[in-house]
Design a protein that fits this description.
The complex is a heterodimer of chains A (about 120) and B (about 150). By secondary structure, chain A is mainly α. Chain A has five helices and one strand. In chain A, α2 packs antiparallel against α4. With about 150 residues, chain B is α/β, with parallel strands linked by helices. Helix content of chain B is about 40%, strand content about 15%. Chain B has a four-stranded parallel β-sheet with strand order 1-2-3-4, covered by helices on one side. In chain B, α2 links the parallel β1 and β2. In chain B, about 45% of the residues are buried. The chains are: A mainly alpha (about 120), B alpha/beta (about 150). Chains A and B meet through α1, β1, α2 and α4 of A and α4 and β4 of B.
Chain lengths: ~120, ~150
């Protein structure tokens, strides 16, 4: 979420940012699905493909794209919808297993060291 | 970056700083008082100043909407450049970041307002810089993978 927010702030003209660089995921290495989850929440995008039996289906349909034009109830419903989607995603997605360095071919290993950085000596 | 608004501490710190220093931070929450105490010292030492988009508003001192972020930045800019003689390049505006994952309805839309606030400030005052404390946006998220 921080990476994606930073990305759009930079595009809007942000010059400086205080971040934890060690923990900050690079924008380009975030899977498209996770990026969309965060973007939906940050921008309060109109939800797509809301099931008819969704408990808040009425509020989640025909939502204006600009959050300022959404009603108070719509805003809250949209926010809750995406918070739940994010929680669900991270509950059901297993942590990525990092391949052990020794199992990766040398040229790939070197590329990883350059892109990811390394503490191995 | 010198993280205090105590004038004595700032002055002492600046005498030990090599190169460009940044003072963190001033705002108009108590009117011009902080400006008066801090800016002349910054000016004397050539330091830059972080200015938060906050004013005396009783209900919501911290600017939430893009319009208020811009209005406070413009008011601060006018004071700093005209009254205190600070160069625009020594002004760093903090348009503020609000948490968007806490479920607090008052903060919905905050991320968009911050982005658009940056855009408006940079359009109106192209010579200043902007800064944000990014992680506030995800405040309240469980710590874990993908959330940093």
């Amino acid at each position: 979420m921080n990476s994606i927010f930073l990305y759009y702030c930079t595009k809007a003209g942000l010059d400086l940012a205080i971040v934890n660089t060690e923990k900050l995921e690079r924008f380009a290495s975030i899977p498209a699905q996770e990026r969309e989850l965060a973007e939906n929440l940050l921008f309060s995008h109109p939800p797509k493909d809301v099931p008819a039996d969704h408990s808040n289906a009425g509020l989640l349909r025909d939502v204006p794209a600009d959050w300022r034009e959404q009603s108070k109830q719509q805003r809250a419903a949209v926010n809750q919808h995406y918070l739940a989607a994010i929680a669900e995603h991270f509950r059901t997605t297993k942590k990525k297993e990092k391949a052990r360095a020794a199992d990766v071919p040398l040229d790939e290993r070197l590329a990883n060291y350059i892109i990811e950085g390394t503490r191995d000596v | 970056m010198i993280d205090t608004t105590d004038p004595t501490a700032i002055e002492l710190a600046l005498t030990f700083c090599q190169g460009k220093a940044i003072l963190n931070s001033i705002n108009l929450e108590d009117g011009e008082e902080k400006f008066e105490r801090v800016v002349p010292i910054a000016h004397e030492f050539g330091a830059a100043v972080v200015v938060g988009c906050i004013d005396e508003d009783k209900l919501q001192a911290q600017a939430f909407t893009r319009e208020r972020k811009l209005a406070i930045a413009q008011r601060s800019y006018k004071l700093l450049t005209e009254k205190y003689g600070l160069g625009p390049e020594d002004i760093i505006f903090d348009p503020l970041v609000f948490p968007c994952a806490t479920g607090d309805e008052n903060y919905i839309g905050g991320a968009v307002e911050t982005m658009e606030g940056i855009r408006l400030i940079k359009q109106a005052l192209p010579d200043v810089r902007t800064i944000l404390g990014i992680s506030n946006v995800s405040f309240g998220c469980r710590r874990g993978r993908g959330k940093s």
